[in-house]
Amino acid sequence: MFASKSLLRLTFIAALAPAFAFAGPLADAAKKAEEQAAAGDTVGAHNTIRDAFGTFAATLPFTIGKAVFVSAPPEGYGMYAVRPASDFKVGEALISYVEPVGLTWRPSDGGLLESHFTVDLELLDPKGTVLAEQKAFGSFDFKGSVRNQEVFAKLTLNLSGPPAGDYVLRYRFRDAASGAVAISEQPFKIVP
Q: Which residues form the signal peptide (predicted)?
């Protein structure tokens, strides 16, 4: 059976129309925020986007968005200087900046929301053999009135006397509310 090109084109466009008609909650929030901003409601626009992103992030699986060695302790979320190399001298502290994504937020006292995660540490050789470990190396609690997505962990490891060589620092993050686990691995070298 022969169909004209214009009929095929219309059929194709009609098939795509539902996808364009329903863009999703983030797109809806972005449209609303743009309207609020255009009307001079800067705070309302900001809150609309922040709340929509928090709701969306709650649907994401728990994972690690970023894990880097830093030159000095971070001053806040995204406020860090990446260490130029992952070579450390004996006795030098390994400071990691890590951003978990997809944390679970639960209702708390006084109408607040809370999130909690713990971090276990494993020191590995390059073949994956565990050389040392510490459960509950870190514990982080967050409370607030919104599902804050600007959450990070500063983890400092002081190694005493490891021989020069290559290693892997593995942090195992556990979301207390969901039980989900996310892992970050950072290769590094101890140099004389």
A: 1-23
